[in-house]
Specification:
The complex is a heterodimer of chains A (about 80) and B (about 300).
Chain A (H helix, E strand, L loop, with lengths): L3 H10 L23 H15 L5 H4 L5 H10 L3
Chain B lengths: L2 E8 L3 E4 H7 L4 H8 L3 E4 L6 H14 L10 E5 L11 H8 L7 E5 L5 H16 L4 E6 L11 H4 L6 E7 L4 E3 L3 E4 L7 E4 L2 E4 L1 H22 L9 E4 L4 H8 L23 H9 L7 E8 L3 E9 L2
Parallel strand pairs in B: 4-5, 4-6, 12-13
Antiparallel strand pairs in B: 1-7, 1-8, 2-3, 6-7, 8-14, 9-14, 10-11, 13-14
Helix pairs in contact in B: 1-2, 3-4, 7-8
Chain lengths: ~80, ~300
């Protein structure tokens, strides 16, 4: 099962500049932390690769915090 | 063996200030510089046609090499935005504009960002089969013809340019056996609809991130090489973010991936030859890996090896 720590590590390893020191607040909106759409694409490329679960474009808009991503993949069985 | 003898480019003199354009869409200068990777996007003039860009690149090639116009016996234009509606083929129009003789094979290749790698292989194969001596591969795909200036997704990315590459037996660089691939199920992610370019940015990004690194590894395996055996990685300059994402999959040689699109933007099939123009004569580089990926979805990679 994908953990919140794995999601945070994925974000930090993808090279994006987060205006917050680890640990990243799990309820904080990515875009408020200075991420842009390409950063988010990058995170989801890694998460999809890690879980084997494809996230449709329509769902991506709702997933803007570590908490929401964690809940999403948990509901999909990962 | 047919290889590359010389290469030249043509950049239109006009350009768009991409930082100002980004601001119009609410994008920061930092985003334009670090994620898009281009502060200026080259633009052809209103009266310039695709064939004009192509002919200008060939004239630059003639000026910068020993090739003479009358020696050209094969002329291939990689474009999906040819003159008019693509009929007649742009290669024929370029042939006329350069006043070439009739003993010339001339045709277009309909491919986008993978077109240069494909084109090298197509022209090399044709020349070896037919005995043609001096082939010129042109890339000229001005997306300004189809980009909607009000579309944030595409208008910040693409620039206009052309290149011309001379293939002959007495060459400087060998052209290696390419790895070629297609996923037509993704064709709709980058397509012209009702005369306007549309792009699903996320899907195109995912495609590049997921498909290109494995192809590069497959090519290296095919050639029995390690990533460190390649001196320079000249991959398609789709955006700074895409080059960064692909290069991160090769941590041990990440610094050898070139990012150089600041003055032009994504010039489609011309991005790779534009990089080669700058590094062609550097004797430090013995092996250059080239990779193009985009429209189709199509992706292609090959290795150029210095002969002399």
């Amino acid at each position: 099962m994908l953990s919140k720590t794995q999601i945070e590590e994925t974000m930090l390893n993808s090279g994006m500049a987060v205006d917050s020191q680890p640990p990243i607040p799990t309820d904080r909106n990515f875009y408020e932390m200075g991420l842009d759409s390409l950063d988010v694409f990058n995170v989801f490329v890694e998460l999809e690769s890690l879980t084997g679960i494809q996230v449709p474009d329509d769902d991506l808009e709702k997933l803007q915090t570590i908490d929401s991503i964690h809940a999403y993949f948990a509901a999909k069985g990962s | 063996m047919i290889g590359i003898r010389s290469i030249a480019a043509y950049l239109p003199s006009q350009s768009v200030d991409n930082i100002a354009q980004g601001a119009r869409f609410g994008e920061s200068e930092d985003f334009i510089r670090k994620k898009i990777g281009a502060t200026r996007l080259t633009r052809k003039g209103d009266s310039e046609e695709t064939s004009d860009l192509a002919a200008a690149a060939v004239r630059n090639l003639i000026q910068n090499s020993e090739l003479e116009l009358q020696q050209i016996d094969a002329l291939v234009v990689v474009t999906q935005n040819g003159d008019g509606c693509g009929l007649p083929h742009t290669a024929a129009i370029v042939h006329d504009k350069l006043s070439l003789g009739s003993d010339v094979a001339a045709f277009d290749v309909s491919l986008g960002c993978s077109g240069f790698v494909y084109g090298l292989s197509i022209l090399k194969g044709l020349m070896q089969e037919t005995g043609l001596k001096n082939g010129v591969l042109i890339t000229a795909d001005p997306y300004s013809k189809v980009v909607d200036p009000e579309d944030r997704v595409t208008s910040l990315l693409f620039g206009d340019a052309a290149s011309a590459t001379w293939l002959t037996a007495d060459a400087v660089w060998n052209i290696g056996r390419p790895v070629l691939a297609t996923d037509g199920s993704g064709a709709g992610n980058l397509a012209v609809r009702e005369g306007r370019l549309t792009m699903n940015g996320r899907q195109v990004f995912n495609f590049a991130a997921m498909r290109v690194p494995p192809q590069i590894r497959k090519l290296l395996q095919q050639e029995e090489l390690e990533p460190a055996d390649i001196d320079l990685y000249c991959i398609h300059q789709g955006s700074a973010a895409i080059v960064d994402t692909v290069s991160r999959r090769f941590r041990e040689v990440q610094a050898r991936f070139v990012l150089d699109m600041d003055d032009t933007g994504n010039t489609v099939s011309s991005t790779v030859p534009l990089l080669l123009v700058k590094h062609f004569h550097n004797p430090e580089f013995r092996r250059i890996l080239i990779s193009g990926f985009g429209v189709g979805l199509s992706w292609a990679s090959s290795i150029l090896t210095r002969r002399i």
